[in-house]
Write a structure and sequence with these properties.
Helix content: 25-40%
Largest sheet: 8 strands, antiparallel
Number of strands: 16
Shape: globular
Protein name: N5-carboxyaminoimidazole ribonucleotide synthase
Order of helices and strands: EHEEHEHHHEHEEHEEEEHEEHHEHEE
Family: Belongs to the PurK/PurT family.
Distance between the termini: 46 Å
Mean pLDDT: 96
Bound molecules: adenosine monophosphate
Catalytic activity: 5-amino-1-(5-phospho-beta-D-ribosyl)imidazole + hydrogencarbonate + ATP = 5-carboxyamino-1-(5-phospho-D-ribosyl)imidazole + ADP + phosphate + 2 H(+)
Structural class: alpha+beta
Organism: Ferrovibrio xuzhouensis
Enzyme class: ligase
Number of helices: 11
Strand order of the largest sheet: 13-12-9-10-11-14-16-15
Strand content: 25-35%
């Protein structure tokens, strides 16, 4: 497969901060980016060569966009599937549509893992209250009820601690496309972010530990402080998923550390918030690596230069930017969003430490 050389145009579906950081990394390698997004003034457009404002369902605008690009990628997985599949007939779309189809649906994701003997929380598809009662009997309580599609940052989820909660939980989500999962009593949450090239080579940054606040990722500690055997298991699983999907690009796999084993929670077919630390603390960042992968270039070295703690700046936390700029070991990244609404990711800071010197996740 011929490489797409620097100077070519990369299309990015979606205009958020992930698209912005992809466009910046692409520009550094001499590529031009064309952003396609429905918003008027998305953060990615500000740093890209071209921007088309359009709905993903506008077939004519999407076809014109495809014409201008040597390859197309996407920065979020909740993009309407059919328009992306139509686009893939006109221009290479990487990661491919099969990875998108599976990662758009929590049930497909878990079935994909189960078929490979990869552990997940016990789960059942739920279309109605009777299914939910049956799931509670089969799996036991507590349960987490989730929408199969379009959930993010804990949205579209309800915990069920008692059978009496079943009707209210079902009414809260009210959909015939739900999944009930057994509640996992995990020690910590991990993710493995890796890249797979068009030649099948894989470069991983290794497992990191993720800490959430109000269901939004707050901090990522790199590396995760886990036993080498558990780290190897998490890594093996992420590689197996990437190979099973014949994946091209950066893939993030979120896992629960259950002490002596790990379970897959979900995967994201894109660059991931828990990989932002690589911008300052790895030889090749996840953004550069994704561009390399989708353009068919050799992957870069994923080696860690130092330990890092990434912290998201959510809502008005961005107001701390002067103090953050003054921290000697901190590297600040702001997304250029005009309005700091509660819950909105406005930027992140990477704090860098010599190996073994980062604060413990428990006390930081
Ligand atoms: P998700 O949208 O699936 O990533 O879920 C958001 C968060 O809810 C996760 O990061 C976990 O903290 C928690 N969570 C999700 N599923 C489960 C589960 N089956 N058991 C326990 N906690 C869960």
């Amino acid at each position: 497969m011929a490489a797409i050389p620097p100077g070519s145009t990369i299309g990015i579906l979606g205009g958020g901060q992930l698209g912005r950081m992809l466009a910046l990394a692409a520009a550094r390698l001499g590529y031009h980016c064309h952003i396609y997004a429905p918003e008027a003034d998305p953060p990615a457009a500000e740093v890209a060569a071209q921007f088309t404002r359009g709905d993903y369902t506008d077939a004519a605008a999407m076809a014109a966009f495809a014409q201008s690009c040597a390859v197309v990628t996407y920065e979020f997985e909740n993009i309407p599937f059919d328009p992306v599949a139509a686009l893939a007939k006109l221009v290479p779309v990487r990661p491919g549509t099969e990875a998108l189809r599976i990662s758009q649906d929590r049930l497909f994701e878990k079935d994909f893992c189960s078929a490979r003997g990869i552990g997940t929380a016990p789960y059942r598809a739920v279309a109605n209250v009777a299914d939910l009662c049956a799931a509670a009997t089969a799996i036991g309580l507590p349960l987490v009820l989730k929408t199969r599609r379009m959930g993010y940052d804990g949205k579209g989820q309800a915990k069920i601690g008692h059978v009496d909660d079943v009707p209210a939980a079902f009414a809260a989500l009210k959909s015939d496309a739900l999944i009930a999962e057994g509640f996992v009593r995990f020690h910590r949450e991990l993710s493995v972010v890796l890249a797979r090239g068009t030649d099948g080579s894989i470069v991983s940054w290794g497992p990191v530990e993720n800490i959430h606040r109000n269901h939004i990722l707050w901090r990522t500690h790199a590396p995760a402080r886990i036993e080498p055997a558990l780290a190897a298991e998490a890594e093996r699983i992420a590689r197996e998923l990437a190979e099973g999907l014949d994946y091209v690009g950066v893939l993030a796999v979120e896992l629960f550390d259950c002490g002596d084993h790990v379970l897959v929670n979900e995967m994201a077919p894109r660059v991931h918030n828990s990989g932002h630390w690589t911008m300052d603390a790895a030889l090749t960042s996840q953004f550069e690596q994704h561009i390399r992968a989708i353009c068919g270039l050799p992957l870069g070295d994923g080696g860690r230069l130092c330990d890092a703690v990434m912290e998201n700046l959510v809502g008005d936390e961005i107001d701390a930017w002067p103090a953050l700029l003054a921290e000697p070991n901190a590297r600040l990244h702001l997304y250029g969003k005009s309005e700091a609404r509660p819950g909105r990711k406005m930027g992140h800071v990477n704090r860098l430490y010599p190996p073994g010197r980062a604060p413990d996740p428990e006390v930081s």
